Amino acid sequence: MKFSQWFDTFFKVNCDDVISYSCSKEYSIINRKHFYLIANKELQDIKPIDVQMCIKTAISYSSSRQRKVYYLLHKVMQEALINDLIDNNVVDKVRPPKKVRHETDCYNSSEIDIILQNVDKDCCFRMVAFELLTGLRRSELLALTWDNINLDERYIKVCQTIVLTKDGEQLVKLTKSRRDRRVPLTDEALSVLKLIRKYDSTFGYVFKYREDKPLSFKGYYGRYQRCIDKLQAIDSKFRHLTPHKLRHTFATYLLRSGVNVETARRILGHSDISTTQIYVHSDFEQAQNEIQKLKFVKK
What we know:
Layout: H1 3-14, H2 21-34, H3 48-56, H4 63-82, H5 109-117, H6 123-134, H7 138-143, E1 149-150, E2 155-158, E3 161-165, E4 168-172, E5 181-184, H8 187-199, E6 208-210, E7 213-214, H9 217-234, H10 245-256, H11 261-268, H12 273-277, H13 284-290
Antiparallel strand pairs: 1-2, 2-5, 3-4, 6-7
Helix pairs in contact: 3-4, 6-8, 6-9, 6-10
């Protein structure tokens, strides 16, 4: 059987309506962009050099993409081995690309101050500020409803997400980690919520497009861009970081404030504590402050 034929079978059984739409879409893209070199090869004829060539097609991409190419190919060939189509998994003979960890960027304290000082001016500021102050994932933020918020006990219940499917965006009663969690609210987060209730939304979805519809991902990006444009008009030095850096900023400052890693993991909704620990080792601003403690004693 040719690789292309087997991949189609693998995809139908293991991807379609099995994994998330975004993930299956990514697998399809990887197959098209990186596996074309072996598409017409018989499974048994694929050699280690062919695997290396597939990985090399991703050389201009990130190390993360290169690793995804490797591990997806390994998974496809492993399924072929399980189904007695090949005698061994040729990908096992090739080392996976090394994982490269980049420093996690986040907003600095002066940029955070500018965001929080302008929350009363526009709904886009309030949305960005609330995401910053809670560390919610974008899909969780858009799925948040007032029923999930307990103002008296000062927490929000994260129990649903907006996900992209082949039929469009849909609400799913499930989080990325597949478990509900409660996120405590700070005084600043409560203040922003009160402004949202006063100016933007009083029932249903907290961030909405229409009365009964949540803000779409496209709508979210539009508001985020508008917020950045307004912030840069206020301060030309304000950086345009990606929206996910709001969550990075929350995580970094959470740990910098002395919250232990396990508590931070639960608040952030990480399944693996190693994900949370990334932020422990990536706080350059704190490193700059701490280095001042270094003293060289004269002998």
